[in-house]
Write the structure tokens for this entry.
Amino acid sequence: MTPLEVSSDSVAVVALEPEPHLYAQFDGLIDTVRESNNQDVVLDFCAVGMLTTSGISRLMRLRSLLDGSRRLILCQVRTAVKGVFAVIGLDRVLEFAERQDDALSAIPPISQWCNAQSRGRFRGPESLLVRSVFLGKRFPAKARKYVTSTIDI
């Protein structure tokens, strides 16, 4: 099993292996997310040529554990696997990026959140939501959408 690669304090990158090793990776990642839900997750599907219902169920379990407070981005997904997601409608639910760099650049660094807060850009209830991000607390996806749309990145 490929170890979890942490690209920063706020983002975990995992290069997935083909099935059947994929299941062990998902199980390990699910355990990691349960223990500390303070990182966005980027899954690199470069080596994954097919995905069964067992892999899809583990992926959706991981997504539900992130609970809208953190992002799950799938990158380098092969056409066949993307087709599976499209057939079952997950292409509208999951977030995709072409390359790992694109996925990482889609996630704003914590320093940008801190700088925006220190410049007084946030006042009122939005400020509390931003602070909850720094503390790793969960808040509804609706609130995250509001905060991320408020920040000038």
Notes: Helices lie at 21-35, 53-66, 79-87, 100-106, 110-118, 125-134, 141-150.
